[in-house]
Amino acid sequence: MNRRYARHLPFIGAEDGNITIFSTLMTVLMLMLAGASVDFMRHEASRVRLQTTLDRAVLAAADLDQEQQPADVVADYVAKAGLADYLTGVHIDQNFHERVVTATAGADLDTMFIHIAGHDSLMAQALSTAEERIANVEISLVLDISGSMRWNDRMTNMKPAAKGFVEKVMTDNSGGVTTLNLIPFAGSVNPGDTMFEYLRGERPRIKGNNGWGNGDQDAPGGSLCNNNAENADEGAADPACGGDGTAPEGYFTAWTQAISNMVFYFDTDGDDIFDVAHKVEAFPEGASRDADDFLAAFVAFVIAQDPQLTDPGQFLGASVKGGTQKAAYFQVKGDENGPSYDLGPTKNRGRIPGDTFSYASIEQAHWTPFYTDPNEGLVQDVAEEAETIRVNMPSSCVEIPDSDFAATAMPGSRDYVPHFQHWAIDPEVMDWGWCPEDDTAIQYYSSDADHLMQFIEGIRMHDGTGAQYGMKYALSLLDPNTRDDVAYLIGQGLVDPAYLGRPIDWHDPETEKFIVVMTDGMVTDQIRPNDPRAPINGVEELLEQSNPDYHVQSTAGHNVQNLYAQCTLAQSLGVTVFTIAFETDDTAAEQMRLCASSDSHFFRVEGAEIIDAFDTIARQINNLRLIQ
């Protein structure tokens, strides 16, 4: 280089200041990076706070039990967090069973450092959506109504507990998605008259019902003529005994004490099984004790009061109650045994499916001419009548064989559970029968909480403890193969058409199935009278009869194994089983514990604790049916 030129560039060869420039540039860059981190951290902290608040707000707003307007709930949550100015929108999608809440929020955050790079603010945004919908729920509630429930106020405590359960699971929001089968059980379970016919149950015919006297067919010497202690009048009329074949006049035996009330039974659907009954009570002490004296007036009167009764042939028979003598039923339509009691309904206490009238309100002289005997026009050939007139029974239970407990289908037996009482009855709180009467039959696929609670309130106890039958029906009514049965019930007007297609498939992702079983005792033997059609079975407990004639159809231990078979099937199919042992001994409690889905689904309670048990189960069901 020319030295003269170099003199004009004094620093061209110096290098000691370069590091200072580099350091300055790097320092500025690091400060910008550190500052940006601070800005971004502030931004993220604001965004997280906004998002968290929004998440809580939409979850609360989506709650179907939330009574406030969803938008107001979101706004209130955000305002209380001090973020009201940042809420930008709330969108609600809602129907009867579902609510979806979406909320957005945004905030401009002034930057402290990256504004150097031209970014004066950062936008913190949040979007949150919450959904709550009620899944389809199918519940079978199985209630013990055995005679032991009368002890220690058990029934008194059970009724409000069960009604509270119904009220909690059948809310305003559950209509259309939650159905409940209510299954009362005593010695057996009554599917009801309609389902009895559908299940092909065969009722005994009237000829078998109308035995002589008290139905004892084992008279000395094997002849009815020798059974004079019970049926001298009938035997004397029998040509085989030397009589002239003339049946005794009238349908009723004179009552030994003053009559207190009578119940008259009518058939409105042509199956010879009563579905309407009207009571006449408040008989004066001096009234005749032979019901034949006022039968015509009373029947004509009650027919005139009921628009359902249009044909004299609808009248079937009547039961009588008075004093300490047990109520007895007397057949009129198709009667062949004269004034001897028959096997049939004796609903002189508790609820009746009809109205109640006072003796004094019936002007007998006026109404008697309006009576028409229901036997007019009937075929008089006894053999033919036996094929057309069936026993007028108050209950409709079918037998369930062992093979049915290995499956979940509805019972398919054609056999009828006889009408009888084994242990002592308390007529103040119990109705007669091992099989609950038709007014205590299964209530199917209901979403009507008021109806179910009224039904529970009116339940009366019956004889025996057949929890295995209750469990069998409970599971069958959750089986999707029962859809044809439901369609039939809909056609009969017993189930809302909205539930066509139920039960829903097993393991359906949007369906929860539950069984709740309550009992106060061990599963019992299954008892059956050897002469199931003997009229005495309708008025005398088997153990009280002078010559008890019955057998054990299946032992308690065998019945417990059938119960466990159904419990195991239920759990394998995804059904949650809750059980309640109510004031039971250890053996009965263990039966319920082993049936439950787990120990946490089993409750052993005393007294009013049953209310808490049902309440806890209802809350668990409500929680499990929510999908978010």
TrEMBL record:
Pfam families: Tad (PF13400). It comes from Ponticoccus alexandrii. InterPro entries: Tad_N (IPR028087), vWFA_dom_sf (IPR036465). This is Putative Flp pilus-assembly TadG-like N-terminal domain-containing protein. Keywords: Membrane, Transmembrane, Transmembrane helix. The chain crosses the membrane at residues 20-41. The keyword Transmembrane applies. The keyword Membrane applies. Residues 17-62 form the Putative Flp pilus-assembly TadG-like N-terminal domain. Gene3D superfamilies: von Willebrand factor, type A domain (3.40.50.410).
